[in-house]
Each structure stands twice: as structure tokens, then as C-alpha cells.
């Protein structure tokens, strides 16, 4: 992916890898990472359209209410390795972060690229929401190492993978996951990494649109359908990641799209459960199969329209 340096130094990127950490651990665990048409605004730099986000988000929420209320779909937060933690906490070092000096940082390039993708995705969604008169609050990217305490989703270790906390509007990322994707999941490349970040920003879009609240309510009220609700929610975040990817179409290089699709497949529930000869239990899926994740990311990319990301009704 062709990208420009210089976006890492902004107030929405908090690097606490050099700060003294609080305790890790945490409860719960972050599981790992239809026809709603409309014309609309051209996304900056891309080939797709956002089809009137006011209508899209409202329609998605209505669909979520109607379908979920009838016993079926979802929304929430977290990556393929993600769901909600109970408890409260604060990001250690967030007010006075002590970032590793660039000259001493072995992950300086990965940090800059991560900040670039995060900032670009945020700008795309902020412009879309603002244009349609919708409230938008910036998300923040927290880079940590080993363990972290969030501002409302409890504590986590890097073992949970990248995740989004709707309570504090922050994406949490341990850069070591980049190597884990390559070495353990077979998902390599810069655009595979971009997919991970864009997926988490998709959860922030859901949060700003009110979808996360609706999903949380439905999970409480329909505990027997919690997993299906989670799957539908995660697939929508995949689709929204694809929508963002369509906006950087002119920056993509040969193989980039394959990298993102490969990453989406690598973190499918069936693929993860079968690693090492494990058994696959569809009833325990929380993020979707490899085929589903591939399909919904590609749906968002090819349409460039969040209206195509209706995972709350019909088959997925």
C-alpha cells in the first residue's frame, strides 16, 4: 500500500508502550479480532459511495431492532479476538505518555503505518457523519505492550489481540500482533494489518450510529442468541472495513486486496478452532467463518457503500 508518513504525531494516537504498566489480566476475554440502497456522497479518494449515512445508520438500527427483536442478529465491539470486558479502568500513561524514541523503536515504521491507516479511516467516517448532520466523536488509538487497562472495558493482555472499547472510544493495539498474524495465522502484509485497524474503526462507526447500544441490549435480553448477535455484528465491522478500503483504491498495490482477504479468512472462527487439529463447534462462533468474513469484507469493498453492510437481516 502506498502511504504518506507524518500522521503519527496527532492527539488521537496515544503511545504508552514506554510507560510503566498496570496489571493485566481481565475478565471475559476479547474472543481473539440486504437491500438498503441509496445514492450519496463520493468517498474521498475512492471508487465507492456513502449512501446518505443518516438514512443508512437509521435503517441499520431499525433493522437491528426489528430483526433482533424477532430473535435474530447482532452488533457489538471487538476484533476477531474481541468482545467486552467487565469492570472499569484507565489507560496507564494516557495523560503523560512516554513513547519510545523513534530512533530506538524497532517498530517505528509499523507505528507510523498504523497511525496512518487509523487516521485516514477516521477522516473518511468523520466527513461522512458530519456531512449528514450526525454526531461524531473521534476515536483514539492506544498503542500498548503486554497489558493495558481501559477506560470502561476492564483490563486486557496482548493475548486478546486488537480490540475496540466503546466505553472510551478507543482502539487498543499491541504491535506484536503483526508478527503473530504472520507467524501463527499466516496472514502477512501491510494491507492485512490495515484490515485489522479498519475493522476496529468499523466498531467505532457502529458505536457512533447507536448500533452498539442496541446490540448490547439484545445480548442481555436474548442470551440464547448472544453468539449469533456477535457474529452479525463482527461481520458488519468487516464490511465497513471493506467500505473504507474502497476509498484508498488508488493507493493499493498488486496483492494488497488479497492480503486483506487472506487476513479476514485467517481469523474466521472455523479456521481458528481447527488450528492444531482442534474440533470446530459452530454454536460457539462469535465472529463468523472464514468464508463469511471474506464475503462481507469484499461486499463492502466492491460496493463502497455502508448501505450494503446489512448483516442484521437475512442469511449471512
Task: Please estimate the helix content.
Answer: 40-55%
Gyration radius, in Å: 18 Å
* N- and C-termini, Cα separation: 30 Å
Mean pLDDT: 80
Low-confidence stretches: 22-32, 34-42, 51-56, 61-76, 79-96
As an assembly, this protein is single chain
Main sheet characteristics: 4 strands, mixed
List SSEs in N-to-C order.
EEEHHEEEEEHHHHHHH
User: What is the 3D shape?
Assistant: globular
How would you describe this structure in keywords?
two-stranded antiparallel ribbon, 4-stranded mixed sheet, 316 residues, alpha/beta
What does this structure look like?
By secondary structure, this protein is an alpha/beta fold. Helices cover 41% and strands 8% of the residues. It has nine helices and eight strands. The strands form three sheets. Strands 1-4-8-7 form a four-stranded mixed β-sheet, with helices on one face. A two-stranded antiparallel sheet has the order 2-3. It has a two-stranded antiparallel sheet with strand order 5-6. The longest helix is centred in the middle third of the chain and has 24 residues, at 108-131. The protein is globular and about 50 Å long. The model is unreliable at 22-32, 34-42, 51-56, 61-76 and 79-96 (pLDDT under 50).
List strands and helices in order, with pairings.
Elements: E1 13-15, E2 41-42, E3 49-50, H1 53-69, H2 108-131, E4 140-144, E5 147-149, E6 155-157, E7 163-165, E8 170-174, H3 177-183, H4 190-208, H5 211-221, H6 226-247, H7 256-266, H8 269-274, H9 290-303
Parallel strand pairs: 1-4, 4-8
Antiparallel strand pairs: 2-3, 5-6, 7-8
Helix pairs in contact: 1-5, 2-4, 4-6, 4-7, 5-6, 6-9, 7-9
Amino acid at each position: 500500500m502506498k502511504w504518506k508518513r507524518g500522521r503519527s504525531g496527532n492527539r488521537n494516537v496515544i503511545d504508552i508502550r514506554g510507560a510503566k504498566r498496570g496489571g493485566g489480566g481481565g475478565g471475559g476475554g476479547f474472543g481473539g479480532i440486504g437491500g438498503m440502497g441509496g445514492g450519496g456522497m463520493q468517498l474521498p479518494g475512492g471508487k465507492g459511495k456513502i449512501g446518505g449515512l443518516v438514512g443508512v445508520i437509521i435503517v441499520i438500527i431499525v433493522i437491528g431492532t426489528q430483526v433482533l427483536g424477532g430473535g435474530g442478529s447482532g452488533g457489538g465491539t471487538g476484533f476477531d479476538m474481541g468482545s467486552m470486558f467487565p469492570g472499569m479502568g484507565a489507560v496507564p500513561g494516557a495523560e503523560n505518555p512516554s513513547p519510545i524514541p523513534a530512533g530506538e523503536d524497532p517498530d517505528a515504521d509499523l507505528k507510523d503505518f498504523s497511525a496512518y491507516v487509523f487516521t485516514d479511516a477516521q477522516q473518511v467516517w468523520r466527513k461522512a457523519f458530519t456531512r449528514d448532520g450526525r454526531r461524531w466523536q473521534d476515536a483514539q488509538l492506544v498503542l500498548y505492550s503486554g497489558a493495558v487497562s481501559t477506560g470502561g472495558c476492564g483490563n486486557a493482555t496482548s493475548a486478546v489481540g486488537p480490540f475496540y472499547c466503546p466505553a472510551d472510544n478507543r482502539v487498543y493495539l499491541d504491535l506484536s500482533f503483526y508478527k503473530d498474524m504472520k507467524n501463527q495465522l499466516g496472514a502477512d502484509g501491510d494491507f492485512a494489518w490495515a484490515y485489522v485497524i479498519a475493522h476496529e474503526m468499523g466498531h467505532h462507526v457502529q458505536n457512533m450510529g447507536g448500533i452498539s447500544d442496541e446490540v448490547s441490549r439484545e445480548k442481555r435480553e436474548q442470551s440464547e442468541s448472544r453468539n449469533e448477535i456477535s457474529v452479525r455484528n463482527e461481520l458488519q465491522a468487516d464490511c465497513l472495513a471493506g467500505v473504507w478500503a474502497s476509498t484508498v483504491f488508488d493507493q493499493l498495490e498488486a496483492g494488497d486486496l488479497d492480503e486483506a482477504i487472506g487476513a479476514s479468512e485467517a481469523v474466521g472462527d472455523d479456521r481458528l478452532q481447527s488450528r492444531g487439529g482442534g474440533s470446530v463447534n459452530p454454536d460457539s462462533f462469535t465472529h463468523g467463518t472464514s468464508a463469511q468474513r471474506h464475503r462481507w469484507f469484499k461486499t463492502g469493498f466492491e460496493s463502497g457503500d455502508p448501505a450494503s453492510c446489512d448483516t442484521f437481516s437475512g442469511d449471512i
